[in-house]
Amino acid sequence: MPTVGLLHPGEMGAAIGAALRGAGTAVLWTSEGRSGATVGRAEAAGVEDVASAAELARRADVIVSVCPPHAAREVLASVEGFEGIYVDANAVSPATARSLAVTAPRFVDGGIVGPPPSAGREGRLYLSGAEAEAVAELFAGTSVDARVVSADPGDASAVKMAYAAWTKGTASLLLAVRALARAEGVEETLLAEWELSLPNLPERSERAAASAGAKGWRWVGEMEEIASTFDAAGLPDGFHLAAAEIFRRSPRHEAATLAEVVAALT
Q1: I need a surface site. Which of 91, 121, 200, 231 has the fewest CB within 10 A?
Q2: Same domain, 41 and 127
């Protein structure tokens, strides 16, 4: 069974590492330069710490990169010369994925959809590239539903971009709408109308605020990658550039309330 290297186990990466460990796969990571929180997640996932990214690249057959999109190139560069299968499972545009593929001889593009997988909660990993099938086989019988899109790098990222354009894009729009209504002094009237015609929106905007506080800083780059994807397709990119700004202005703490987020936006 191939040995998998994981760079770097945030919440999603640690969940993927735990899923692979549950299937009996040896999973490596490196704590070099990582935070205490990352170390804790890795230990909980049961993955093995090695001395450096270079050591991880020497021992691994497959490397899976799960990091914020702005760090995708840096993470790939940290294992320069790696000759195994490199899976970039980051929220990057198809163009970014294809540019990364040029520098990795055995590149597989990946796009993760859904929450971090766990027992009883499945996540999906879309894959594209010449060796996508081999990567999908690693996750057979795990909580990660690996689906091959095509043999072309960039296609899995296109699925991720289109999916997140809706889920995270609409979350940012809800927050902007609440901020606008409050700035104009009509928030209570808007909420009363929502209760009549769109009763799920008040709760959705509360959830959007909580997510923006906990994860919004990581979504800035993702929204910019989505905007780039729209632009490359000849579509307006302003929706998601604005979404990036919404998340950039959001407070950075997990207990952020809707009132705090709205205040930060205005």
Answers
A1: 200
A2: yes
pLDDT digits (tens, 9 = 90+) for 112-132: 999 999 878 899 999 999 999
Tens digit of each residue's pLDDT (9 = 90 or more) over 13-42: 999 999 999 999 999 999 988 888 889 999
CA distance 105 to 98: 12
Handedness of CA 135, 138, 140, 141 (dihedral sign): negative
Close Cβ partners of 139 (under 8 Å, ≥ 6 residues apart): 19, 20, 23, 125, 145, 146
Residue 82 has pLDDT above 90, yes or no: yes
Rounded to whole angstroms, the Cα distance separating 63 from 81 reads 12
The last residue of a domain, from among 105, 123, 152: 152
Q: Which has the closest alpha carbon to 99: 179, 153, 175?
A: 153
Domain boundary among the residues 152, 170, 204 is at: 152
Residues 56 and 114 in one domain: yes
pLDDT more than 90, % of the chain: 90
- 10 and 134 in a single domain? The answer is yes
How far apart CA 9 and CA 41 sit, in angstroms, is: 7
